[in-house]
Amino acid sequence: MKPSSLTGRQRVNRMLARRDHDRVPRCDTFWADTIARWQREGLQWDQNDVLRLLECDFQGLCWSWPAPFPLQRDVLASDAETETVRDGWGGVARYWKGRSGTPEHISFDCDSREKWERIYKPAMLAAPIQVDTRMALLRYREGRKLGRWTHLSGVEGFEALRRLIGDEAFLMAMIDDPDWVRDIVKVHTDIVLRTYEAILAEGVAPDGLWIYGDLAYNHATICSPAMYRALVWPEHKRMADWAHARGMRVIYHTDGRVGAVLDLFIEAGFDCLQPIEAKAGMDIRVLAPAYGSRLAMFGNIDVMKMATNDLGLIEEEIRSKFAAGMATRGYAYHSDHSVPPQVSWETYRAIIGLIDRHGAY
Amino acid sequence: MPLLSDLTAAVAAGKRTDTVRLTQELLAAGTSPQDVVEKGLVPGMAIVGDRFKRNEIFVPEMLVAARAMKEALKLLEPLLAAAGIKPKYTAIIGTVQGDLHDIGKNLISMMWRGANFAVIDLGTNVTAEKYLAAAKEHKANIVGLSALLTTTMPSMKETVRILKSSGLDGLKVVIGGAPITQEFANDIGADGYAADAGSAVDLAKRLVGEAA
Ligand code: B12
Description:
Chain A is an alpha/beta fold. Helices cover about 45% and strands about 15% of the residues of chain A. Chain A is globular.
């Protein structure tokens, strides 16, 4: 392992400014099942320790996804493995017992504009701040001590729509009642920014914002770029403006094929794109030369290749993509979404070695 | 009297009020329910599939078109049933065991419905046994399996194996979803793969022997 000359915070800031730095900054995400597999294969601790081994440069301070009824959790049914619950968003979802994992959404209650205006919007606006600002402060102090790049995290409006009114309903509402959709996205953004303000008021001075919203799938954006521009983008821009006014940079997370909206991302003020899903046809060997000076690239290392556990194939993936990203100085390592359980612990340890080897400037 | 082509245009544009009104008017003017479906609605959904394939329209536009068609079918189905007319082909669709992603699967279901297949949607997290039971019960021509997770692809493989070895005569098994490729379909012995909801209609028609 080479001694590093910069802290993670300096490294990421330099990467975002396209200034010289010592090595590619790093972060990653793992499925819960992957960590469980690795623990069976010799990993002694948990995912935070994997991130330490990776020498992760990032530190999240909070996760903001405001619910209209934050304390609501009515258990409607229960079996050995799952619990069916009316949750804080008003809908019914089935949660796993005793392990993390995305819940199955069974129904959504906020199914009309009338209900939104009468029940959900007032509830969202009246609900208390839903992140632990004190914990954010502690995580901030810890992150600064570790020299990491600290960031506020949470979802943006498109993802909020999905959880509140359900995919099909909100996508049809984008055509039937665009003002309703705009209003939900705006209220969500108001609350998220209010939440972040509350964290700043604790004396936290984060380096950036890392916001999440899956706008796309394998073939295209889920709605048209024009619809994204009209209904969601203004609030993306507002978030980015808010961050920039406070000296923070913005990382935007989306899955899928987003080539058609990269210019809009840049125009909104996003500084960096993550995780750049290879399976959806995104390839930084093409994108970095075209966009790398205006949009930093974070990720794109194909988990399908990792899942083969074929180190030759994985090395070529890392080597060629790092070379393309590093040529712009605006590149950070992340898998192209999250590391799945087909990847062995031995493979992942080897991947860290490959990142060391190919990620040094 | 409105033209069938007006109905085609209305459904393709996702205009549900117009679609329902034109359906009523065509029926009132003596057009047979079968023609309304086959010469009015089906071509409309074919346009939708085509434009979606080319990224000229996106998921919201496809959803509202399917909704318009569904509302017209509500008027038409009792008439078709009374006349003893059933769709010629039956398809089963579902997302495989362990997988909860359903948006893509729902689009396939809508588009197959729009191509005048009877569609039985088994939902998500569907076991091989459930697909098999449904295929038997409904005498299905096609079973469609959707998987969005690499971790559920093995479950897809197992389901294809069980369906293909069930001895159900002429049953075709087709697969799709974000991580799925033609190569994987070949490997696991599926009869077909399609990358999107428009192509899934061409595929299904080809496999049942209708020109796509
Ligand atoms: C929306 C989404 C979700 C939603 C699903 C909501 C819902 N009701 O479906 C939620 C948030 C619940 C979710 C959960 C999870 N997800 Co998810 N999700 C997505 C996302 C962003 C979009 C999927 C989508 O809706 N696409 C839109 C539709 C229209 O496209 P489609 O499904 O591909 O379908 C088209 C074609 O594939 C084809 N098709 C589909 N099915 C079929 C079937 C047949 C027979 C045929 C012929 C064709 C066909 O036609 C469709 C229309 O054109 C994808 C990203 C991506 N690149 O796809 C990740 C993605 C699928 N998810 C992923 C993951 C990891 C998960 C989770 C494990 C955890 C997580 N944190 O996200 C859980 C798993 C839950 C479970 N057990 O299933 C990964 C899977 C990676 C992998 N290695 O397997 C993806 C690829 C994200 C990524 N970049 O890595 N997810």
